[in-house]
Amino acid sequence: MQQLTTARIEAGSLLSGLSLKGPRSARRGLGATALGSARPWSYLFRAVYQVSISHAGDFSYVGIDAILEQMRRKAMKQGFELNIMVVGQSGLGKSTLMNTLFKSKVSRKSAQPNPEEKIPQTIEIKSISHDIEEKGVRMKLAVIDTPGFGDQINNENCWQPIMKFINDQYEAYLQEEINIDRKKRIPDSRVHCCIYFIPPTGHCLRPLDVEFMRRLSKVVNIVPVIAKADTLTLEERDDFKQTIREELRANGIDVYPQKEFDEDAEDRLINDKIREMIPFAVVGSDQEYQVNGKKILGRKTKWGTIEVENIAHCEFAYLRDLLIRTHMQNIKDITGSIHYEMYRVRRLNESNAGPGLAPGQAPTLVSAHTNGQTKVNGGPPNGMAAQCEVLTHEM
């Protein structure tokens, strides 16, 4: 189910934390930089002229650094896409947290209010799209909800519909990619990040949590969070986080940011600090209050106000920075270059193996390697393999 709404965020923190100061922010932060709207050509020529004048006395200056401004202009013109999936049982505040992240009504329940909504008998996948703009930066945001997950008496294999949905988006992108007359810019519906909500039990992960993250971490970037963390004391919260980290390691679950994808020592240093905080203990709220003359998002109780963006109260700010301000482009890069690439290679190999294979179905024909070439026993390749021959002849 797709619904397109438009939301404009006049204030807030969306995409506003990065700047183009060097190659690293060009690689990681360009996709999440808000530096103003596109400038008219007259202003652009004047800016280039001013740069030339400023370096007029520098005989060695070539102007290679101007590529950053060119990339920024192109990115501002095209806009950005981000697809976030939220998974967790009912009542954990998934919709509220998404509204809090983007300071707008972006969740499914906000866009499609239904006070009589009942827990579905089976898992449903519902996606809502929004056009968001902040300081001239446009982004198409898709929030994918999974009502029904973990709400049944028997939750066996309840992860399968979610796995199928993620793979279906990879398949749709692949089919667009291999078309002979393909689009200049392929619409990206691939799931870039999955936020998994862990109930605040204070004890340990449930078998359902372990099984879901173990299977889905191989196909999508998973960011686990402890929902409604204000129900735990600080000591309970720290113990619970430590227990979860130990269980993740014991079960071989590699959540985002994955250690094997750190690009260099600087990346590793930053990501190690993030890995020490995972899972993030978060509190969501779209209610505004005045505290000491300052407007805040929070939850008001008899004994005080829980400030959502105050790191002394919860770790929502760290989650927001990870998803939006510092690692958004990296999350998308890993989706495209790692998760989608693994799916693409597997599908093209299956297609070359023989006709009639459904997405995700294992090949049944036997292949033999001779002199660096692959020979397949069986009939001719199907239509997909024929289209992909150029892409796969070296695989």
Overview of the molecule:
- With about 400 residues, the protein is an alpha/beta fold.
- The protein is built from 13 helices and twelve strands.
- It starts with a strand and ends with a helix.
- The N terminus and C terminus are likely disordered.
- Belongs to the TRAFAC class TrmE-Era-EngA-EngB-Septin-like GTPase superfamily. Septin GTPase family.
- Its main location: cytoplasm.
- One of its GO terms (molecular function) is GTP binding.
Observed structural traits:
alpha/beta, 38% helix, 7-stranded mixed beta sheet
Please write the string of helix (H) and strand (E) elements: EHHHEHHEEHEHEHHEEEEHHEEHH
Share in helix:
25-40%
Q: What does the largest sheet look like?
A: 7 strands, mixed
Alpha-beta classification: alpha/beta
Number of helices: 13
Q: In percent, how much strand structure appears in the residues?
A: 15-25%
Question: What is the strand tally?
Answer: 12
Residue stretches low in confidence (pLDDT < 50, at least 5 long) are: 1-39, 360-395
Terminal Cα span: 37 Å
Shape by Cα distribution: globular
Strand line-up of the largest beta sheet:
1-3-4-2-5-6-7
User: How much is the radius of gyration in Å?
Assistant: 24 Å
GO molecular function: GTP binding
Pfam families: Septin
Protein name: Septin 9b
InterPro entries: G_SEPTIN_dom, P-loop_NTPase, Septin, Septin3
Summarize the structure.
With 395 residues, the protein is of the alpha/beta class.
Topology:
Blueprint: E1 4-8, H1 23-29, H2 41-54, H3 67-78, E2 80-87, H4 94-102, H5 108-111, E3 126-134, E4 137-145, H6 160-178, E5 193-198, H7 207-216, E6 222-226, H8 234-250, H9 265-277, E7 280-281, E8 288-291, E9 294-301, E10 304-307, H10 316-326, H11 328-353, E11 367-370, E12 373-376, H12 383-387, H13 389-392
Parallel strand pairs: 1-3, 2-4, 2-5, 5-6, 6-7
Antiparallel strand pairs: 3-4, 8-9, 9-10, 11-12
Family: Belongs to the TRAFAC class TrmE-Era-EngA-EngB-Septin-like GTPase superfamily. Septin GTPase family.
GO biological process, one term: cell division
Domain Septin-type G: 78-350
